[in-house]
Design goal:
Blueprint lengths: L1 H14 L4 H6 L20 H33 L2 H16 L21 H8 L9 H16 L3 H13 L1 H4 L4 H13 L1
Helix pairs in contact: 1-7, 3-5, 6-7, 7-9
Length: 189
């Protein structure tokens, strides 16, 4: 059991780094299947493709978040109690001068303003745009799980697959096809 916990802990450390090379260097899975971890190498040109993709789509993601932040600021100012009270005071002044005006909106003047948090939502929804493609790491860890499975160590195999999905650093940066493969392999154990 200690070996399984150590293996999973070390696998999680593997995914906590941003650098592909560091992800692989930090892995030290014990047992007969540990040699499979050494086979995890990025495909030729992967780092260049990831960098290019992150520059292009990451910039768009940040720009969208910037628009969200500007919108948040506008909504916060327009819906703040100060703004509402200012409008209500102006409306009362107009009504006091003899003009006909509906003061119904003044009842909402003291309510707290809105914060739609669009900037954070934009960042959350475009997170994958800023991720490197970590499918090859997931595929390598699936090979480790397959090794455990072939050795009739299904519990270790299942834990290995679960660690991929439970680690947000990797699970958010792998394709939906890779996630589907992991789920299929887990169901077969």
């Amino acid at each position: 059991m200690k070996i399984i916990i150590l293996s999973l802990s070390l696998a999680l450390v593997l995914f906590s780094s941003c650098s592909h090379e560091n992800l692989i260097k930090q892995a030290h899975i014990s047992g007969n299947c540990s040699e499979k971890i050494r086979e995890i190498v990025p495909p030729p040109g992967q780092r260049i493709m990831d960098f290019s993709r992150q520059v292009a789509t990451g910039s768009v993601s940040i720009a969208i978040a910037g628009v969200g932040a500007a919108t948040d600021a506008i909504v916060i100012v327009l819906t703040s109690p100060v703004t509402k009270i200012s409008l209500c005071v102006t409306a009362i002044a107009i009504a006091a001068s003899g003009e006909s005006i509906d003061l119904g909106f003044c009842q909402y003047a003291g309510e707290p303003g809105l914060n739609p948090k669009l900037a954070q939502k934009a960042l959350d929804h475009t997170k994958s745009w800023r991720c490197p493609n970590l499918d090859y790491i997931s595929q390598g860890l699936r090979k480790v799980a397959a090794c455990y499975s072939q050795g009739k160590e299904n519990e270790k195999a299942k834990l290995q697959l679960e660690s991929i999905l439970n680690n947000k650093t990797i699970s958010e940066c792998i394709s939906t096809e890779e996630i589907d493969r992991i789920k299929i392999e887990m169901a077969q154990l």
